[in-house]
From TrEMBL, chains A, B:
It comes from Paenibacillus montaniterrae. It comes from the Bacteria. This is fructokinase. PROSITE patterns: ROK (PS01125). It catalyses: D-fructose + ATP = D-fructose 6-phosphate + ADP + H(+). The keyword ATP-binding applies. Its cofactor is Mg(2+). InterPro entries: ATPase_NBD, Carb_Metab_Reg_Kinase/Isom, ROK, ROK_cs. GO terms for molecular function: ATP binding; fructokinase activity; metal ion binding.
Length: 293, 293
């Protein structure tokens, strides 16, 4: 099979072609300019390619309700020019094939369950921690949509007693994203995270907030794997700190060996690394193809 | 159809017989004594009845993993005599029919999605707030299990600045259950909740904590309905307070009319009322029957 993938982020778009094993044959990236320019570049990249399916994993919020009149739209984004844009409709004009459409993070969760760290499992949650915090949720073999789609970057968190930073989320100030995304580290300490030493107190704070969010995730959803990706998670010293935070907060309540004994195999980095997003788009295309839509 | 249902709570067991419409024909209840006595009474109640299926919604933690050697067991409960009890195995000795088995709260969520407040929807979350806080989760048409099953009564919550009560959860002190279950109200104010006036500050505190948990639930799972049952939720003045807490905390972030305009139809009491638990057991039996197991 040959599957086209489009990973649409707020700052750049990655287009690629891969197969049903998640292997990428070629890819390009370009900035997220106006929709006109972006769709033109997408059409150019895929022009003349023989494809079986296409998948799109995009920034949001988006409409993923197949019964909705605006299914396939990017909806209420603050990004200039991208509000109420019919992404799926534009692609359907050019590409006569199954086209999968979901959030970038739902795509990444599906890719990890299809080819990566959660392969063969019935559930996983994918967190990306970078300029924002995004969450993809795969439960009982399905990506979660519901009313809209998960937006767990914005869940409330208890404040660390030693943290006086007010938080930077324009909606909630000190929600998870407001205190734990990359900009929170930079605003709190005056330099970017990767300029801080591995022993800096920033990482303990970061683990406090992310660990707390994972505890809520475990208690609400009981996922079989939790995968943490994104730029901030390149700080590998965070993983043991987060696992310890989760264990100490749960305090033995969830009696399962993955948490009690094997937490280093439970809270893990993405197996697909920096290709998780593009693989997510491929996985969405593959899923749509298999569903016969 | 005739379906048997067993709602097994920590203090009492309810057995009943109903049909595929969730209509209850007859029921009895008795205290949760030793497993020997309980199984004997269950056998007596159903003896000679013509049934198509049986469903069990039980207190936990339980093993709901069909591939596990202890599938159908109540596992690590502190309740004397009930640790590592093979509930499903005991029932299978007596009843040769499909037997559904899940948590009482997952059963209640399924019943509300089958016959109640979430009828026809693809997702709902059921909270029961009483001597503890239990949560059942139905997502994309399936009850959520994953690693174990949801235990969202214990998620971390931000403390209300005016609340000095330390919390009573033996594992986490001031998790949701520790500050918002019935005993927290009693320990904080010295009398049971139903003895406090409807204007008492207790209800504002209660709404602060429950509203916060619902915000996390909405952001992580995006359920199409949230149903709040249990003894504490008989205090109907809580519903508008909780809805307001959810709306003000989300602060317009989730752009969906169910939250922005129709939140009084979104966060609601169980349609099945005090029969939600028994109907849950019937729904679990019906689900097992339909799955042809």
């Amino acid at each position: 099979m040959r599957i086209g993938g489009i990973e649409a982020g707020g700052t750049k778009i990655i287009c690629g072609i891969g197969n049903e094993k998640g292997q990428i044959e070629k890819k390009i990236s370009f900035p997220t300019e106006s929709p006109e320019i972006v769709f033109e570049k997408i059409n150019q990249f895929f022009a003349g390619e023989q494809l079986d399916a296409l998948g799109v994993g995009t920034f949001g919020p988006i409409d993923v309700n197949r019964k909705s009149a605006t299914y396939g739209y990017i909806t209420s984004t603050p990004k200039p020019g991208w509000k109420n844009i019919d992404v799926l409709g534009e692609l359907k004009k050019q590409f006569n094939m199954p086209i999968g459409f979901d959030t970038d993070v739902n795509g990444a969760a599906l890719a990890e369950a299809t080819w990566g760290s959660a392969q063969g499992l019935n559930s996983c949650v994918y967190y990306t921690v970078g300029t924002g915090v995004g969450v993809g949720v795969f439960v009982e073999g399905s990506l979660v949509h519901g009313l809209l789609h998960p937006e767990a970057g914005h869940i409330p968190v208890k404040r660390h007693p030693a943290d006086s930073f007010e938080g930077f989320c324009p909606y909630h100030k000190d929600c998870l994203e407001g205190v734990a995304a990359g900009p929170a580290i930079e605003k709190r300490f005056g330099v970017k995270g990767h300029e801080l030493g591995k022993e800096h107190e920033a990482w303990q704070l970061e683990a406090y907030y992310l660990g707390q969010a994972l505890v809520s995730t475990i208690l609400l959803l009981s996922p079989e794997r939790i995968i943490l990706g994104g730029g901030v998670m390149h700080q590998e010293q965070l993983f043991p700190l987060i696992r310890e935070q989760v264990r100490s907060t749960l305090n033995g309540y969830v009696q399962h060996q993955m948490i009690l004994e094997q937490i280093d195999q439970y809270i893990i980095p993405p197996a697909l690394g920096d290709d998780a997003g593009l693989c997510g788009a491929l996985a969405l295309g593959l899923q749509e193809y298999k569903a016969g839509r």
